[in-house]
Write a structure and sequence with these properties.
heterodimer, A: 351 residues, alpha/beta, 9-stranded mixed beta sheet, 3-stranded antiparallel beta sheet, 17% strand, B: 298 residues, Glutaconate Coenzyme A-transferase, 10-stranded mixed beta sheet, 3-stranded mixed beta sheet, globular
Chain lengths: 351, 298
């Protein structure tokens, strides 16, 4: 919802522990940055949320990620409103814990499509209450019988962040372009966005894909930026076309190097496919999962301690090179990556 | 001694265009190349992760070097050197034209009508090409819960044509899906609660003629007739019509079978193995080349 403000926000620099303590509460509606488990997941933040034991979260997001995977390991998510319930694509498609919790009736899943979630956040970002979108008419996604939040009695209007309807289908009234679906805006309370670089006043940038992070930053009431590095704001202003998040949307800035691990931050470090496969393996058995959580979440004293535990060898294998933005040293499959100078498709298309 | 990528690149045009023989390749390679053959040189392709991505990358290096590859996280015309494990992998963004986000890919490109070919996976498919990637059984108490739509339903309904890759089993090839995530040529009209042709439900929208054009499975390649009903077009080598029918949950039209799915050529296999997925991320193993090919490689 458009929030008419009397004065500009002023971003505050704080520690990870402080940011989680200040901005989280049980039952919060929250959105995370990145794309699946591979790109710019604010993992350190989610990790600290689990350690501080916040629960009953309503995650509204473009899809699952390392963050939702971790939150589901302890059953911290109560409502999961998204379009893709997996988390790691080729490293562990379906979130096994989520499926387990879902079958036990402990989580509400509300399905949309990927484009629909993007459009909902776009509407939220520009202060529009809803947005028309065509896809996918005739899908059970837009079958009124399959409205999980409605079935759970949560569309009464009591919670102002939950729309009274999942969607409305209308006849396009201006041009006569057939039937179209109106989707309600996404209006979460908190956005947590991991970026490569943020100025100390809040102007933020990433390299690589944008997914819907800019839309999320504008759609949410409060924005926490976690970053690989915090630099003087003036540095960010030298190259403003490379920035995506304007400083006045930001509430808190947290410097947390390797804060997206095991997802990647283009031009900083790659995703850790072997580590993600271990996460997926651990999640298939309750005892293994408990061991994994004890070892990787509860035993480290803080995130820095977690990174130290990963070890220099691993970090070296993930370090991105400055030309491609990713690492060719990590073993993603059965063979090492070949050294390439030019994509074959470019060599053969002749430019 | 191992060859450099530059040396391997020079060998591509020396590879014969002749079809490989049974035993010289594995099924995922045949399927990846069958996908590649769907891609035309002037296509704008929007593909999902997994074998579809491997197939379109192969197409981009073989039969369709000018095809534009869109990756849904915001990448326009990525020119990859290393196969991405996710559509948000920085590898997919290599040398791309522009880099944006989901509003770009689903709004500016897809809903705006630029995408000519979608290539997607699915857990189950109905005889009209409707795809289920959501759940089996009762939606609220499913026997199996899958990941859900992702971009499947957007791409599958708004790209001019869409091809699917699906594992063929009786429980996955159905008269009607338990849950239709991505409508095929027939779908529900929820206003009247009638099962209707997509053309009628989507009438007046720019997407009324968009829909499934083909399905590649582990047993064959399928097309859709003028009524929007799936039929078998080719059988993969060693597969019989009887075996396909045993693995299909409805009365399949097999009257239009044209023969066998072509085996990949040595050139196609060489590009797929040495350039698309030499790391063996998607392809499970690398079959040894026959002596004649080995002697070309040297």
């Amino acid at each position: 919802m458009a929030r008419i403000r009397g004065k500009a926000k002023k971003a505050e620099i704080m520690t990870l522990e402080e940011a989680v303590k200040k901005y989280m509460h049980n039952g919060i509606q929250i959105a995370f940055s990145g794309f699946t488990g591979f790109n710019r997941n604010p993992m350190a933040f989610a990790w600290e949320v689990v350690r501080q034991k916040f629960k009953d979260l309503h995650v509204i997001d473009r899809h699952g990620s390392c963050c939702t995977w971790l939150l589901n390991t302890v059953g911290a998510i109560k409502v999961y409103e998204t379009d893709w319930m997996g988390w790691g694509e080729m490293a562990g498609k379906l979130d096994i814990n989520m499926e387990r919790i879902y079958k036990a009736g402990k989580i509400i899943l509300e399905d949309y499509s990927h484009g629909a979630m993007a459009m909902r956040f776009l509407a939220g970002a520009i202060g529009a209450p809803f947005i028309p979108y065509y896809a996918p008419l005739g899908s059970d996604l837009y079958n009124v019988d399959y409205d999980a939040l409605g079935k759970a009695g949560q569309r009464s209007g009591k919670n102002p962040r939950i729309p009274k309807k999942k969607f409305i289908q209308i006849e396009e009234p201006f041009f006569g372009d057939g039937e179209v679906v109106l989707l309600p805006a996404a209006r979460p309370e908190l956005a947590v966005i991991h970026v490569s670089k943020v100025g100390d006043k809040g102007t933020a940038r990433w390299r690589g894909v944008g997914t819907i992070d800019k839309e999320i930053a504008f759609a949410c009431d409060k924005v926490v930026i976690t970053a690989e590095e915090v630099v003087p704001e003036g540095e960010m202003r030298k190259d403003p076309e490379a920035n995506q998040i304007p400083f006045f949307t930001v509430d808190a800035i947290v410097e947390v190097p390797w804060g997206a691990f095991p997802s990647g931050v283009p031009f900083y470090y790659d995703y850790d496919a072997p580590f993600m496969r271990e996460m997926d393996k651990a999640s298939r058995n309750v005892d293994d999962l408990k061991k994994w959580l004890d070892e990787w979440v509860f035993a480290p004293k803080n995130w820095e301690d977690f990174v130290v535990k990963l070890g220099a060898r691993k970090l070296l294998s993930l370090k991105a090179d400055s030309t491609t933005g990713y690492s060719t040293k990590m073993m993603r499959g059965k063979n090492p990556a070949p050294r390439m100078k030019m994509p074959l498709s470019v060599a053969r298309s002749g430019y | 001694m191992a060859k450099s990528m530059e040396q391997l690149m020079e060998l591509i045009d020396k590879m014969p265009d002749e079809k490989a023989k049974a035993g010289e390749f594995i099924l995922p390679e045949l399927m990846a190349i069958a996908i590649a053959h769907e891609v035309l040189n002037d296509d704008v392709v929007f593909a999902g992760t997994g074998l579809p991505m491997v197939g379109i990358m192969a197409a981009n290096m073989l039969n369709a070097p000018n095809a534009v590859l869109i990756y849904e996280s915001g990448i326009c015309d990525g020119k990859t050197m290393h196969v991405p494990m996710s559509v948000s992998d920085q590898r997919a963004a290599n040398m791309c034209s522009t880099l944006g986000g989901l509003v770009d890919t689903f709004g500016y490109y897809l809903q705006q009508g630029f995408v000519t070919l979608g290539f997607l996976g699915g857990a189950a498919i109905d005889k009209y090409g409707g795809v289920n990637v959501t759940s089996i059984g009762d939606y609220y108490a499913p026997a199996h819960r899958f990941t859900g739509s992702g971009g499947n339903s957007d791409i599958g309904t708004m790209a001019k044509r869409t091809a699917y890759i699906i594992l063929q089993e009786k429980r996955r090839f159905l008269e009607r899906n338990d849950y239709t995530t991505t409508p095929g040529w027939w779908c529900w009209d929820f206003k009247t609660r009638e099962w209707k042709p997509k053309k009628e439900v989507w009438k007046g929208t720019p997407y009324q003629d968009c829909g499934p054009c083909g399905v590649v499975t582990n047993m064959g390649v399928y097309r859709f007739d003028e009524k929007g009903i799936i039929y078998l077009e080719t059988l993969h080598p060693g597969i019989t019509v009887e075996k396909v029918k045993e693995n299909c949950g409805f009365d399949l039209n097999v009257s239009k079978v044209k023969g066998e799915t072509p085996n990949p050529t040595y050139k196609e296999l060489f590009v797929l193995r040495e350039f698309v997925d030499p790391e063996l991320i998607f392809l499970p193993a690398k079959t040894e080349y026959p002596a004649a090919i080995k002697s070309i490689i040297g």
